[in-house]
Amino acid sequence: MSTIGKREFNSSEVESELRRGPWTLEEDSLLIHYIARHGEGRWNMLAKSAGLKRTGKSCRLRWLNYLKPDIKRGNLTPQEQLLILELHSKWGNRWSKIAQHLPGRTDNEIKNYWRTRVQKQARQLNIESGSKRFIDAVKCFWMPRLLEKMEQNNSPSSHSSMSHTMNLGNSGEASINVMSSSFNIPSMSSASPPQRGFIDAADHCSNMSHPINPSPDSFQFSQLLEISEHPKSLPNVFENNVYSYPIQDNCYAETNNYGMEGLNMDPLSAVETYDFPQFDFQTAGSGWMLDSMGDTTLWNMDAM
DNA sequence: AACAGGTCCAACCGCCTACGC
DNA sequence: CGCGTAGGCGGTTGGACCTGT
Q1: Which of A6, A121, A134, A176 is least enclosed, having the fewest CB within 10 Å?
Q2: Which nucleotide is nearest to A66 if distance is taken from CA to C1'?
Q3: What is the pLDDT of residues A32-49, one digit of tens each?
């Protein structure tokens, strides 16, 4: 056994001079060209045949997370963030499963997003990120805000709601248009007494019990996104800001109108009327959530 | 300019499962 | 059934980069 840097290597690793750490352009090129000619799979053999001094695992990871042509780069869109939040509330840390529903995004990227942004957010709010409270808080506050942001991005000069229909295709695939103004998120200014905080609002959300079919007066976001655990095909999820998922054949019937008249989505009335007695962030001012939505990423709490 | 602390993400690690023998 | 191997997954880490002082 010998030591290189902080890590110990066994003799076979040293003998075969396996490389570790960042990939060089030359290595990337070797891998890309080899896969272009011979395809993916049999990674250990591939590594040897391609002349790479890397483990098969390392090659696979490099290809899947970085080199594959359809990998999307750059910040996650609000739509993608929204979908991650929803899917995580549904499936937990099943990153690869979640990634299947975000074409071009890798499980690693989603995992990193969750750990660096979402968990950080939860820490700052003193909520366990996997807890029901946090999920409820996400559904009550951040999902509506993301939806609003999506709407703003979609039609920056208008406050009109996006059009929303759902088309069930022949193959069991459906496109779901999201009508942000159609969510009956409990209005904080009316449904909750003053001086109640973020957590209480989350509790309020969690106390809403709904049947599978949304009623005009009550609807939870998760009911909108009944996504098949076994997609029949990789969907183009966010084309033209329209959700498009393969869904189970027997779900959804009435989705184009949730009767959300009177919904109070005004962030000021929803948030500013509250202080947050349980959290330190109340000292940051009442515009914290607005500030957090000012960036392209939801979880920018620098303003706090 | 220099430094410290924080953030982000590519890459690695260990564990698990599937599969072939 | 037991064993070895490959591939896949989620968790963790190292270091480059960014930001504030």
Answers
A1: A6
A2: B10
A3: 888 888 888 888 888 888
Q: How far is the CA of A96 from the C1' of C10 (A)?
A: 9
Low-confidence ranges of chain A (pLDDT < 50): 1-15, 156-203, 205-304
- Over the stretch A235-247, which tens digit does the pLDDT of each residue have? 343 333 333 333 3
Residue range(s) defining the domain that contains residue A53 = 2-67
* Burial grade of A274 (CB within 10 A; 0-12, 13-18, 19 or more): buried
Residue A66, pLDDT score: 85
Question: CA angle, A15 as apex, A13 and A18 as ends, to 5°?
Answer: 45
Nucleotides of C under 7 A from a protein CB: 5-15, 20
What residue ranges in chain A does DSSP mark as E strands? 2-4, 7-9, 166-168, 173-176, 243-246
Which 63-82 residues of chain A approach strand B with CB closer than 7 Å? 65-66
Which CATH number belongs to the domain containing residue A23 in this structure? Answer: 1.10.10.60
* pLDDT of the residue at A155: 56
The H or E element spanning position A36 is helix A25-38
Cα A29 to chain centroid distance, Å, stands at 31
Task: Assess whether A60 and A179 both reside in one domain.
Answer: no
Q: What is the pLDDT of residue A258?
A: 28
| Pairing assessment for the beta strands A7-9 and A2-4 based on DSSP bridges | antiparallel
